[in-house]
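Pipeline run #58 for the internal structure catalog. This entry was flagged by the ingest filter as a single-chain record with no existing model, so it goes straight to prediction. Upstream metadata was stripped on purpose; only the residue string is passed forward. Reviewer on rotation: M.T. Logging verbosity set to normal.
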Amino acid sequence: MTQPIIVFDLDGTLIDTAPDLLDSLNHCLEGVGIGPVNASEIRRYVGFGSRVMIQRAFDAHGRSLAEGELDRLQQIFLDHYTANMPGRSRPFVGVLASIARFHEAGYLTAVCTNKYEGLSRQLLEALQMTALFSAICGSDTFGHRKPDPRHLTDTIAMAGGDPERAVMIGDSRTDIDTAKAAGIPVVAVDFGYTDQPVQVFEPSRVISHFDELTVELAQKLILASQGHAVS
């Protein structure tokens, strides 16, 4: 029998990985003579994958990438990031308590991220969080990735969850668009990695702390998605 499920994005939602992603970006840029990206600019870069981060850094300096250079720099980025994991990355405040609340209420939890599955598992294992999730699905787990709604629905299926009793938690337009396309309510955190306020993308609800992610809220969102009147 399937269970209700909460599906989390990873970077910028579950885990604050920005400091380490920025360190790895600056490491690969140093080798091509581009100065470091400042931490105050982090939202312009983090949250779109390593290739986009590198491309944006080149664009910001008026530099073009030679053929094959992006692949080479991405590998340098990934090697550095993997070797230093988990580095300074930590769960956002309140994450673990929130997951515990849902488990106590009979919910499954899973991860649906556009980070590679292997990197996602390595990070969560280093933070001793792997056992919390019934499925950990990355950009290479299936033949599709967010914002394709099948990435979310296949994650739910792999976890043994009920797609009719599911809620997505994310921090970006990609997460919100994915959940909407799947017909699943989505809660957006406003402290993640996006260059625009998440309210602009009209999620089902916005929260500023994981203390606000309660079982009661999830139940209300699920009922509303099923067409029930909720006070």
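catalog note: The radius of gyration is 18 Å.
catalog note: The CA atoms of residues 156 and 199 lie 25 Å apart.
status: ready for reviewer M.T.
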